[in-house]
Amino acid sequence: MSISLQEIAFYVVGACIALCSILAVTTGRILRAATYLLFVLFGTGAIYGILGYTFLGAVQLMVYAGGIVVLYVFSILLTRSDKDMKYRQNRAKLISVLATVIVGAVLVLFLTLSNGFVLNTIPQGVELPMETVGHALIGTDKYEFILPFEVVSVLLLACMVGALLIARKEKNN
Amino acid sequence: MEIHVIHYLIISTVMMFCGIYGFFTRRNLLALLISVELMLNATNINFAVFNRYLFPDQLEGHFFSLFGIAIAAAETAVAIAIIINVYRNVKQVLTDDITDLKG
């Protein structure tokens, strides 16, 4: 039983994702939380790459790690937040939150583990060709996605205009 | 040797419930938004993994993740604009201080 390089990469990335996502919600400083979120997003991009969806991984890196995290960091620096985010929690609330999270996680893990997924023999390490992605994205047949593509572009335009409108500085009359 | 599909699902479950925990416990609006991003990422991973392992000939999950990423970007832009505006009016970004809409 030999361990391939891909498996080693997957388990290292998985451990990194789990650790960083736990740290991102428990750390006291918000800038550190954003940094851990950046590592989680990098790991997610790597997982898409391991799955063979390299285009999706590239989109993840560009949009999330390149765009959203920068937006977060700028808005963190623009707003004044406390040095320490460890606020005093209501004990009953904390217990109920922990119970919800743990019971939910155990339930979901039980459902996935007892589902009995068969290990399909997918071609590991074979990436989805860019040509297929392009044809499916700009095609009008069944299982091709020209309409959602255009709708998303209109949505992005609308949200850009809306964000500018909301964040605009009011003129003092 | 292959990586079993369950291992991907365990990772995404851990990420999802970290997001839920953060969403319940955080009070800073930006930290809440970070937790929401964690949850969105977990669902995107699930879409891609189910697509790759269960229906490797089709591409629906792949494109659903792609559009999910685009919509997450849109949501983040609008949310951060709202947070900046709230900060400009209230000078705070904690959920306890934003009570104007409570009536």
SSE succession of chain B: HHH
CATH topology of chain B: Helix Hairpins
Taking the sheet with the most strands of chain B, its summary is: none
> What is the helix content of chain B?
over 70%
The stretches of 5 or more residues of chain B where confidence is low (pLDDT under 50) are none
Radius of gyration of chain A: 21 Å
Which quaternary structure do these chains form? Answer: heterodimer
Which percent range describes the beta-strand content of chain A? Answer: under 5%
The assigned structural class of chain A equals: mainly alpha
Give the proportion of residues in helices of chain A.
over 70%
Look at the structure and give the mean pLDDT of chain A: 86
Give the name of the CATH architecture of the largest domain in chain A: Up-down Bundle
Can you describe what's shown?
The complex is a heterodimer of chains A (173) and B (103). With 173 residues, chain A is an all-alpha fold. Chain A has three domains: 1-86, Four Helix Bundle (Hemerythrin (Met), subunit A) (Up-down Bundle), CATH 1.20.120.1200; 88-117; 129-173, no CATH class. Helix content of chain A is 71%, strand content 0%. Chain A is built from six helices and no strands. Chain A has helices at residues 5-26, 30-51, 54-78, 91-113, 130-137, 146-167. In chain A, helix 1 (5-26) runs antiparallel to helix 2 and helix 2 runs antiparallel to helix 3 (54-78). The longest helix of chain A is centred in the middle third of the chain and has 25 residues, at 54-78. The N and C termini of chain A lie far apart (75 Å). By secondary structure, chain B is mainly alpha-helical. Chain B has a single domain (5-102), classed as Helix Hairpins (Orthogonal Bundle). Chain B is built from three helices and no strands. Chain B has helices at residues 5-25, 29-54, 60-90. In chain B, helix 1 (5-25) runs antiparallel to helix 2 and helix 2 (29-54) packs antiparallel against helix 3. Chain B starts with a helix and ends in a 13-residue tail after the last helix. The model of chain B has no long low-confidence stretch (mean pLDDT 88). At the A-B interface, helix 1, helix 2, helix 3, helix 4 and helix 5 of A face helix 1, helix 2 and helix 3 of B.
